[in-house]
Amino acid sequence: MGQLREAGVSVQTIRKAVTYLKRHAEQPLSMLSLIGLGNRVFALTDDPSKLVEATASGQVVLTISVESLARHLEQGVTRISAPLAVAVRVRGRAYQAVFTPDLEAGGYTVEVPELPGCITEGDNLAEAKRMTREAIELWLSVAESQKIRTRARSG
Question: Which residues pair with 112 in a beta bridge?
Fold first, then answer.
């Protein structure tokens, strides 16, 4: 019960919860997992989807499956963190670009695998696509100027 006091639960509230739990709990108080929150005391039950408020005559105040919620959140994070392959058209040709979300800073890092070193970033998907078109255009311009220089030297 010391943890409940440390959580800021009043002695009167703890007494009320203990009275209720002594009458209704199926196991000794020392075996129960209790959570104090303000002027409330909650008891965990054998059913992981139920939390009983011991200070409100055993009212069930929360019925969620934490396991399914965690699974749902994990799937969401996996989905939003997965790289996305997008065709970007430049000069009448489609280039495959890989958009990788940056979950810490936000935005996307984009790489065009068939154009080595063609990498850019954008704060959102629309900006990343625009920046990718610009990066491809610049990459192609540099490649063309290098070909012209190479021909001039060899000719």
Answer: none
Contact 13, 41 (CB under 8 A): yes
- Closest by Cα among 6, 34, 3, 8 to 20: 34
Domains of the chain: 2-64 (no CATH), 81-154 (3.30.160)
CA 61, CA 70: separation in Å to the nearest integer?
20
3-state SS track over 105-148: CCCEEEECCCCCCCEEEECCHHHHHHHHHHHHHHHHHHHHHHHH
pTM of the predicted protein model = 0.53
Per-residue pLDDT tens for 103-153? 888 999 999 999 999 999 999 999 999 999 999 999 999 999 988 777 767
Q: Tell me the C-alpha distance between 4 and 9, whole Å.
A: 6
d(Cα 31, Cα 34) in Å, to the nearest integer? 9
Residue 90 Cα distances to 132, 140, 146, angstroms: 9, 10, 19
pLDDT digits (tens, 9 = 90+) for 38-59: 778 877 777 666 777 777 765 5
- The H-assigned helical ranges of the chain are 2-6, 11-24, 66-81, 125-154
